[in-house]
Design brief:
The chain is of the alpha/beta class. Helices cover 29% and strands 15% of the residues. It has a six-stranded mixed beta sheet, with helices on both faces. Helix 1 crosses helix 2 and helix 4 crosses helix 5.
Length: 231
């Protein structure tokens, strides 16, 4: 079984220079173009093979998945929306600029200290990890017959879900870079066991320079150690 974990395309929330988690935004025109790019990539790879589709209940994830399914010719596929895949609720950080967050909550580090994070007035890392574990147990572990599963979710949640499915220590997530909009992470589970292995991690090669997030290489690729080399 293959899991295709995809971060949602650019939403209007991504253009505000603010911290956005639970506020619901739709995709920008650029986001729609990003969705077309990842959809085209998957259409070539899947070659008509049926998919099972899961997504966050937030609009930016639903819309990204809908565009992908349209592109691969499976717009009538059943979409299972679940709050398990929503973005981490960042509480009082919501709507702050990144500079305001650094000034008012200097100990809250969404990058290198995610494994111990407690968002003020929001969720903790462990809260989201439990959501991801529930998603795996209630949905993924029951998908014995599915060969290709699409999962569209959010930046923090996908980092946590990836680390969980790979059965990695919580601390390893502090070396897992932010995923670019529509980046693809492919996890493979062999038939004889529950363990997953990495096929691809944060692959955004389908995006041209005009569709990449400005400055992503500076803020998104923060890890000082290679996540794949930790084990």
């Amino acid at each position: 079984m293959k899991l295709y974990l995809i971060r949602h395309a650019e939403s209007y929330g991504n253009t505000k220079g603010k911290i956005i988690s639970t506020t619901d935004f739709e995709l920008t025109e650029k986001g729609l173009r990003q969705s077309l790019c990842i959809g085209t990539k998957l259409r070539s790879e899947l070659d008509g093979k049926p998919v099972t589709a899961y997504c966050s209940s937030l609009a930016r994830a639903r819309q990204t998945l809908s565009e992908i399914l349209r592109c691969i010719g499976q717009e009538n596929a059943r979409i299972i929306e679940t709050a398990f895949l929503k973005e981490m609720d960042l509480g009082l950080l919501e709507g702050m600029s990144w500079e305001e967050r650094r000034r008012e909550y200097p100990d809250v580090d969404l990058d290198e200290k995610l494994s111990s994070l407690q968002a003020p007035g929001g969720e903790s890392y462990q809260d989201v990890r439990r959501r991801c574990k529930n998603f795996a147990e209630q949905y993924l572990n029951q998908e014995n017959a599915a060969e290709n599963i699409l999962i569209v979710s959010h930046g923090i949640t996908l980092r946590i879900l990836t680390n969980l499915l790979l059965d990695r220590p919580d601390e390893d997530i502090n070396f897992l870079n932010w995923m670019e909009n529509t980046a693809l992470t492919e996890l493979i589970r062999e038939a004889e066991g529950p363990a997953y292995k990495i096929g691809r991690l944060n692959d955004y090669s389908h995006l041209g320079d005009d569709l990449k997030t400005a400055g992503y290489e500076n803020w998104g690729l923060f890890a000082k150690q290679n996540y794949l080399a930790l084990r």
